[in-house]
TrEMBL record:
<dbReference type="InterPro" id="IPR002509">
    <property type="entry name" value="NODB_dom"/>
</dbReference>
<dbReference type="Pfam" id="PF01522">
    <property type="entry name" value="Polysacc_deac_1"/>
</dbReference>
<feature type="domain" description="NodB homology">
    <location>
        <begin position="55"/>
        <end position="236"/>
    </location>
</feature>
<protein>
    <submittedName>
        <fullName>Delta-lactam-biosynthetic de-N-acetylase</fullName>
    </submittedName>
</protein>
<dbReference type="InterPro" id="IPR050248">
    <property type="entry name" value="Polysacc_deacetylase_ArnD"/>
</dbReference>
<dbReference type="InterPro" id="IPR011330">
    <property type="entry name" value="Glyco_hydro/deAcase_b/a-brl"/>
</dbReference>
<dbReference type="InterPro" id="IPR014235">
    <property type="entry name" value="Spore_PdaA"/>
</dbReference>
Amino acid sequence: MVCLLFLVAPLSVFGESQSWGFKRSVNGEQPNAGPELDELLKKYDSAYKGKSDKKVIYMTFDNGYENGHTEKILDVLKEEKVPATFFLTGHYLTSAGPLVERMVKDGHKIGNHSWGHPNFSTLTKDQMLEEWSKVKDKTEELTGQKEMLYTRPPEGVFNEETLKVAKEAGYKHVFWSVAFVDWHADKPRGADYAYDEIMKQIHPGAVVLLHTVSKDNADALQRVIQDLKKDGYEFKDLDHLFENQA
């Protein structure tokens, strides 16, 4: 399961299908998705970054299938006392139940990445609601987590209707401001590569997206967290992000 990263935001976001995109962070400055996208996300209580004057980072992970690295990621997060949100699909919920249970037990949140990973811009309202409800129900069955506030669209594909339906259903879309091509599990590039890709994009208010299928990410994560702490960054959960929107 992949989430696409585009460097430049599309010019029009109303009505038609869009792939999430932004101009990447440079020299610690926040990335920019453009005023049109910024206003659209604000309208539907959605976000991709926090405040620019606070050295806070929000860790998020997308889990489409288990590749043997999530346990190490959870170990690091626990040791470093870093909260995270894991956006899960139906496949992950039905195939990696013990890890899902551990996520909640360790104090992390489960987010909704849809049941079958479809293109949401092609779905009816009822189909969208079914995708979300199946994830929410299975998560509650496995973990007891009743509340599910955050969703992330498969492959970052969305339009105004998907944002609108999500808001009506009680969801906030969470996009991202730091990401790189890390979902090709069969093409490892090493922990240093993952570390460098993350660190060169970091900025105040960063919403970091990582895929747990990547051994590179698992191997780089502790060094990333420790070095960012040394640089004065704090790690908060998504509740903090939305409680502190400008």
